[in-house]
Sequence to fold (501 residues):
Amino acid sequence: MNELIEKWAAVTPGADPAEADPVVLESARLLAAGPDGEHAVLLAFGLVGMAPYVIGRRGAAVEQASADALAAAAEALDARLPEGEDCGHADHPHTKVLQQWDTDADMLHDAPDARIPLSEWDEAEACPRNAAAWARTVADVILPGCVGGIPEIVPSHHESSIRSLDSVLNDYPNGDPRWDLEIHTTPPSSSRLSRAALAGHVVVAHACCWYLGSGRITHRPLLDDMIEGLESVLPLLPDAPCAHGPGEHPALTWGADQQAGDGIHLQSPGGRTVLRDEYDDGEGDGSSLEAWTCTAFLRPLAVEARDHLRAAVETLFGTRRTDHLDPVYLRPDGRLAIGPLTARHVPFKDETATEEAALWAARRYEALGPDGPAADRTVLLLLMATAATSLHLSSGIAQEILGILRTATTPTADGFDGGACAHPDGHARRGERTQDLMARVARLYEPDADAEAEAVAAGQEFGSEVLACPAHLRDVVAKGVADLEEQCAEEPDLLEQLLAE
Fold:
């Protein structure tokens, strides 16, 4: 026995399987042969100590052998004291470990060191019930769902993460959502990922990818990190069929917030009990832990999330093409198709299409140059300035439009001649709706006396011609620049890039 114990120290992540596997298998064999024997507690904790190595050996014989031996030991050690009989300990160290559980691999190191003589252990540590609890927990870490009886103890910081992601994914973040998402972008190294921790990471990433790709997060490294994290786990998810039948995998038909919560529950033994109870409640609402951790279920999720984030990075931070919009926003004679262009600048109909239209307007303005048609340049300036104040533009688009708006504030630009304003009553009524403003912009470009008269009669006291007032153009451009600079100030990476330019 002493010779075997001495070998345990060398069984660590990265150890040579040719040397480590025989040590694990022999320990598991001895424990399975005597799960309540003289050395049961010592052998159980020996396997617990070697579990960080075992979880990196997915599919190898050591995985099943260790889980089976620990499950048998948990049952036998519990049976030493009949149910309800007091062991004399108010609490066991294992309970505190469950309460403070971080990751499966890290928390395994909090187990008692089996190489220290049992006579030197704290009495509660050596208690058969503490040993049984550890054996049961680690069997579940190795093969999720292979044992029952783990208490439904979800670590408080996991519960906090569930609440935080719930608020973020429902678009009501408590503070900067970046910090709530950042801790879920990158998993531990692949050699230290248990089956359930791997599943938890993929499920949470899949739940968060839609929000990350929506444009609300303008910190590109956050998206890059999650893409890298998903790519790092794909080698652990072979592209192969499984034995599960139709409907056995989780359907994920619920919202992203609940999906994220399920993913976090997968990352602790007590959380997995929550999911297991949903499966075992007889109502058919849950899936088995084996199904949750099935690689054939997880791989499509990881690929879908990665591909969605890659597309989002290209859309949000890449060079956005707009030449395909020329036939939409230009007439055959080269003039602006003002109807479709102003209609698209009404926010919230389709924000992606709206910001692309704003970018097209900015690029068209720049392409026309100082000698371009004054009416075109004035209208395009109004359109991109309106987008700057009414939309939270994607970083790349915000940066490009800001640069163009800044050039429009130079003395040689359209309307910026410093002339006095002839409109003491202003240029728009307070609280003017964007769609009404866009209608005035359209009439400025293509005058329509009847429509103008109807608009004024309906309460729009200001005509379209005042939009071309030099003072008004200075104001709307200054506001557009200020709003975009404020957005940049809230996004340190973008601000740093703009300052460098």
About this structure: The first helix runs from residue 2 to 8. Residues 42 and 117 are 9 Å apart (CA to CA). The two ends are 69 Å apart (CA to CA).
